[in-house]
Amino acid sequence: MIHGAPKRAFPYALEDDLINPAEEHTIFWIRPKTGHDANRTLARYAQCGRDGRKGYRELNVIKLDAADIEEFTNIVEKVERYCFSEAYRDKYWTNGVVTPVTTENSAVIADICRDLSSDHLLEIIEVANNVSKLGEYEKKYLNSSSTSAAGAQL
Fold it and tell me: What gap in Å lies between CA 79 and CA 49, rounded to an integer?
């Protein structure tokens, strides 16, 4: 039976991060999108372009960047264990060591969006459209790690 999109955020680690031990994964807490959310996404990106001369579509990069940040902050509730690049050294690093980020502060979430590589940003935006893919990480990694920890205590 098909159910509506859950309103809760799901933990998700990027595919590139799965080669690392589970306790080192950067966890993005992502809210799945409904059909209405997908329509708002489409409208958000549609505003970034206009018809130029000779019928060519012109895109405004500043508006595209703003649309990416708005999309990211709408679907990502919080981020755990993220390592900022050197571009954010003055803002988030302490004595050369990356400050751990676990926050619901949208300004920090926006900086994470700006700092991510394009393929990682795209993966996060795309996975919000797929509830079953979001649930896979929770089932495979979080439940298996709690099960193995419980087995180790016996």
Answer: 30
Residue 4 three-state SS: coil
- Unique residue bearing structure tokens 């309103």: 7
Q: Which residue stretches of the chain are H helix?
A: 35-46, 61-75, 89-92, 106-115, 118-127, 131-137, 143-153
Q: Are 48 and 63 in contact (CB under 8 A)?
A: yes
Write b or e for each residue in 27-52: b if 16 or more Cβ atoms lie within 10 A of its Cβ, otherwise e.
bbbbbbbeeebeeebeebbeebeeee
Residue with tokens 């751990």: 100
Interval 16-69: pLDDT, tens: 999 999 888 899 999 999 999 999 999 999 999 888 888 888 889 999 999 999
pTM: 0.83
Neighbouring residues of 68: CB distance < 8 A, sequence distance ≥ 6: 113, 121, 125
**Orientation of helix 35-46 relative to helix 61-75, angle to 10°:** 160
Q: Please give the Cα distance from 146 to 151 (Å, whole number).
A: 9
DSSP 8-state assignment for residue 60 = -
